[in-house]
Amino acid sequence: MGCKINSLSPPIPCKFYTKKPNLIRRNNIIFSSSTSNENKQKTISTTTTIGTQTTKAYTVSFKTQRACKLGISRYPNFEYDAQGGTGTGSVAKVTENLPNNDLPVSFDLETLYIPPLTSSTTKFLGLPLPPFLKIDIVPEAFQGNINQESGRVDLEFKAKFLFSAGSLYKAPPLLVKTVLTTEESKGNMKSGKGKRLDEEGKCRLVGVATVDPIDDFLMNSFLGLPTECLAEMNAIISISSSS
Known about the structure:
With 243 residues, this protein is mostly beta strands. The chain has one helix at 217-223; strands spanning 2-3, 14-15, 24-34, 39-49, 55-64, 68-72, 78-80, 86-95, 102-107, 122-124, 127-128, 133-147, 153-165, 169-170, 174-181, 184-186, 191-193, 202-211, 227-242. The strands form four sheets. Strands 5, 6, 7, 8, 9, 10, 11, 12, 13, 14, 15, 18 and 19 form a 13-stranded antiparallel β-sheet that branches. A two-stranded antiparallel sheet has the order 1-2. The chain has a two-stranded antiparallel ribbon with strand order 3-4. It starts with a strand and ends with a strand.
């Protein structure tokens, strides 16, 4: 449509075009008029809101801390110092008004590192593990939801646990799949209670999983597979956003 603006100078026609909303953008509309002495310009800045939702991208940092626990079968829990574990996750661009304010997070497995259980990181009944024993943790999936408002975290965790005794013995991988949560996790044998994110991003994640038998008579007998295992992980989760 057309419109006219009355002034001392000749009228200047202008047109405004409307489109269906998609984004948020800033439009500068310039009106000009001339006098006998000088040319003057006036710029009016307007903000056009296109659509009802804006989008953001998020980066999530994950760091494991000390005073963690790992337990399997009816054996007492291992005392586990997981400090030094790291991971980076991301959230695809999502609308600001997500249901329940949950952020769907997926961690990059190439950046995810969880320290192995060794004599320097793990104690059993107050004593370090024997130097020749080692349990490597190889993550295969780490994803779920983080709620910044409530502090609740629920992350699906899937990993292989690789038991070895020096070069003499290596067991087939034990596959562990659970949901690490800041809430309560209970099984028939094991249970744990987490702690939600605080203002510094600190939390405690817990998860109980069922471990199925593997193709190894010694390990099946020693651990009593199938059985349950428990993970209690102190962590720091930091979330940053960019438009």
